[in-house]
Amino acid sequence: MNDVNETMKRQAAWQRSRAKTTWAEKINCAARIRNDILRLRENRSSCRPDKPMAKNGMR
Question: What are the tens digits of pLDDT across the range 14-33?
C-alpha cells in the first residue's frame, strides 16, 4: 500500500508542476513531441519489409 501512496504523491507533484507551466512552454513541448512522432513515423515506413505481414503474422 505504501507504493500506491508514493505513486499518488508523485503524480500530484507532477500535476502541480504542469499547472505552473506557461502556455508557451506547453505549446513548444507539444510541437517538439509532434516533430518527434513525425520523424519516428518516417523511419518506421523506411524500415518496413518488402513483403507485408499476413493477418496471422506470418510472411
Answer: 999 989 999 999 999 999 99
**Cell representation of residue 8:** 499518488
Rounded (5°) CA angle 34-48-41: 5
Contact 59, 53 (CB under 8 A): yes
Instruction: Give the CA dihedral 29, 33, 35, 37, nearest 10 degrees.
Output: -170
Rounded to two decimals, the pTM is 0.51
Report residue 8 CA to chain centroid gap. Answer: 21
The 8-class DSSP code of residue 52 comes to P
Q: What would the grid cell of residue 24 be?
A: 508557451
